[in-house]
């Protein structure tokens, strides 16, 4: 495995600001295989929550897959850029820039995009606009409740005393940590991207477009998204109009927290993603 | 700003070099020592700002990831505290060779303060040392973590496993790492520097202990209390980043010998 720093400059700007990333490659690079781009989650820099992005990129390299973990402009080590674009406008453009760079310097023209939370949203948006994307891997991406969710969620809970006790304890407790909104802006950086799920119809159409473009999708959901999804089959059911065919894989890991803090879950998630990427690559 | 890997290829370290700008030429560079785990994630932005501002004041600055952390090579499970000190040595030598400077200063936050101070105890080319919300020793760190994982409402991912690796907010601290860290105590192992800055976001008995000890050394001590959020280990779904501007300004001004600091 080899790692090197890359600085991807904007082609069109006079400002020549760079996106900083780490290209992680296997000892022998097979240019026919796709490269994986690992996207930021919120304002966390590119090593990912609990260093998950570093572990993932190195595991991919051990399996013969190149990857780039990089920072969007204004995040981590990348320069901020001028302009009033929103995250969902700038992220696909910057992801495309990194794909251009890898294509130019490594001759790879197929890509898989991985992202957690806002990174998942950016992966989806980019796949809609760039045909080089052959797969997207999303942790806690867009999803929508179904009738099954309400049944799974409320029916078992309504009979359990400890659930009610926890509910009342939460209501009565005074959290020792201030909510992000309570902290003076002089002491904290807030994410400029406030995650709001688009209307379901918009995502339905987008997913159908991805299927039509033969983009493989791996959607992994954690307990962090359990307020919206609580069963692996729910995702497909919530998009009944989309004919996913062989292009969709869904996993639900209720044992994992949103930022995959649990050590065993971190290993499991990396293993699942690498296996899926290898399947996509073949 | 230049990001690059340096050091031995087997233990390559990721660093970001901020070259000196501005009108004033400084006779020493600054190496920044990150804290660990979630605290590293939460403070990365602040470190970038400190580095950027110091470079504008004429300092050559290097911030870097210890092996097993960030983008540097290796796994945290294989680390020892002595490796972190070696990595600081490597970073100092790298900055000196890049800039032809003969001396450097160090700044460390939390566990990074332990390593920065220990490094200033071992080396003779450290001019100034700044510590921010410092942990005082490996023992101090261990006690703090044990207190956290023994709380009634402890999160399930914070625990000690069968091999006595302490998992905290998704980052592992092995028994070997913690044992090696216990060999460091910055109150008894005094830094050999000309000037010291201790900046704290809240007041504790251990901060007072350090202030009293450092106040009785040959070095000139500046102590600044700058009240600001100090929950460095707090985890939220938004990657909540602490960016306490008054503390950042205190650190930059102190290195640059500006203002009242």
Instruction: Classify the secondary structure makeup of chain A into a structural class.
Output: alpha/beta
What is the number of E strands of chain A? 9
Could you state the order of secondary-structure elements of chain A as H and E? EEEHEHEHEHHEHEHEH
Strands of the biggest beta sheet of chain A: in what spatial order? 1-2-4-3-5-6-8-9
Helix/strand-derived class of chain B? alpha/beta
Strand content of chain B: 15-25%
Could you say what the CATH architecture of chain A is? 3-Layer(aba) Sandwich
The arrangement of helices and strands of chain B along the chain is: EEEHEHEHEHEEEHEHEEH
Largest interface: A-B, 41 and 41 residues
Q: Work out the radius of gyration of chain B.
A: 17 Å
Q: Unreliable runs of chain A, pLDDT <50, ≥5 residues?
A: none
* Number of DSSP strand runs of chain B: 12
Number of domains of chain A: 1
Spatial strand arrangement across the major sheet of chain B: 1-2-4-3-5-6-10-11
**CATH class (first level) name of chain A:** Alpha Beta
Determine the number of helices of chain B (DSSP H or I, runs of at least 4 residues).
7
Through-space gap between termini of chain B:
27 Å
Strand content of chain A: 15-25%
Please, what is the oligomeric state?
A: heterodimer
Q: What's the mean pLDDT score of chain B?
A: 94
Explained architecture:
The complex is a heterodimer of chains A (282) and B (261). With 282 residues, chain A is an alpha/beta fold. Helix content of chain A is 38%, strand content 18%. Chain A has one domain: Alpha/Beta hydrolase fold, catalytic domain (Rossmann fold), CATH 3.40.50. Chain A contains eight helices and nine strands. Chain A has an eight-stranded mixed beta sheet, sandwiched between helices. In chain A, helix 1 links the parallel strand 3 (35-38) and strand 4 (67-70). In chain B, helix 1 (37-56) packs across helix 7. Chain B has a single domain, classed as 3-Layer(aba) Sandwich (Rossmann fold). In chain B, the strands form two sheets. Chain B has an eight-stranded mixed beta sheet with strand order 1-2-4-3-5-6-10-11, with helices on both faces. Chain B contains seven helices and twelve strands. Helices cover 35% and strands 22% of the residues of chain B. At the A-B interface, strand 1 and strand 7 of A face strand 1, helix 1 and strand 12 of B.
């Amino acid at each position: 495995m080899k790692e090197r720093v890359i600085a991807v400059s904007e082609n069109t700007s006079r400002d020549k600001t760079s996106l900083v990333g780490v290209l992680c490659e296997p000892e022998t690079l097979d240019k026919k295989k796709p490269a994986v781009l690992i996207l930021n989650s919120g304002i966390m820099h590119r090593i990912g929550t609990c260093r998950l992005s570093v572990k993932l990129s190195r595991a991919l390299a051990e399996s013969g897959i190149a990857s780039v973990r990089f920072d969007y402009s204004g995040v981590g080590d990348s320069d901020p850029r001028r302009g009033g674009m929103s995250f969902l406008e700038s992220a696909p453009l910057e992801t495309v820039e990194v794909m251009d760079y890898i294509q130019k310097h490594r001759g790879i023209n197929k890509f898989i995009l991985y992202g957690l939370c806002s990174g998942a949203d950016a992966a989806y948006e980019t796949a809609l606009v760039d045909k080089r994307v052959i797969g997207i891997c999303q942790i806690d991406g867009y999803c929508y409740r179904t009738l099954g969710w309400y049944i799974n969620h409320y029916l078992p809970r309504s009979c359990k005393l400890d659930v009610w006790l926890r509910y009342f304890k939460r209501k009565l407790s005074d959290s020792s940590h201030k909510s992000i909104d309570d902290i003076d802006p002089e002491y904290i950086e807030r994410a400029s991207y406030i995650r709001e799920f688009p209307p379901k119809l918009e995502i339905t159409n987008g997913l159908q477009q991805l299927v039509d473009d033969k983009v493989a999708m791996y959607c992994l959901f954690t307990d962090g998204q359990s307020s919206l999804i609580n069963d692996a089959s729910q995702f497909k059911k919530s998009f009944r109009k989309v004919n996913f065919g062989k292009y969709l894989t869904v996993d639900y890991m209720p044992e994992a927290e949103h930022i995959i803090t649990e050590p065993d879950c971190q290993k499991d998630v990396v293993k699942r993603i690498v296996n899926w990427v290898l399947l996509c690559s073949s | 700003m230049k990001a690059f890997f340096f050091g031995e290829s087997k233990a390559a370290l990721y660093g970001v070099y901020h070259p000196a700008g501005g009108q004033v030429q400084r006779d020493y560079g600054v190496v920044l020592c990150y804290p660990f785990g979630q605290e590293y994630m939460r403070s990365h932005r602040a470190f970038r700002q400190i580095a950027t501002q110091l470079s504008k004041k004429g300092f050559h600055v290097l911030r870097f990831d210890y092996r097993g952390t960030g983008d540097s090579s290796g796994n945290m499970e294989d680390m020892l505290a002595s490796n972190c000190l070696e990595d600081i040595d490597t970073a100092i030598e790298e900055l000196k060779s890049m800039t032809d400077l003969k001396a450097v200063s160090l700044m460390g936050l939390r566990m990074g303060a332990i390593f920065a101070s220990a490094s200033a105890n071992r080396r003779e080319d450290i001019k100034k040392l700044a510590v921010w919300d410092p942990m005082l020793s490996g023992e101090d760190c261990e006690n703090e973590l044990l207190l956290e994982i023994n709380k009634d409402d402890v999160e399930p991912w914070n625990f000690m496993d069968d091999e006595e690796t302490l998992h905290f907010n998704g980052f592992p601290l092995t028994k070997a790492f913690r044992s090696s860290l216990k060999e460091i105590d910055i109150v008894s192992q005094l830094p050999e520097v000309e000037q010291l800055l201790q900046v704290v976001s809240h007041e504790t008995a251990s901060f007072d202990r350090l202030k009293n000890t450092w106040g009785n050394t040959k070095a000139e001590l500046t102590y600044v209390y700058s009240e600001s959020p100090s929950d460095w280990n707090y985890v939220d779904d938004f990657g909540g980043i602490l960016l306490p501007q008054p503390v950042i300004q205190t650190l930059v001004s102190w290195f640059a010998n500006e203002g009242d600091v």
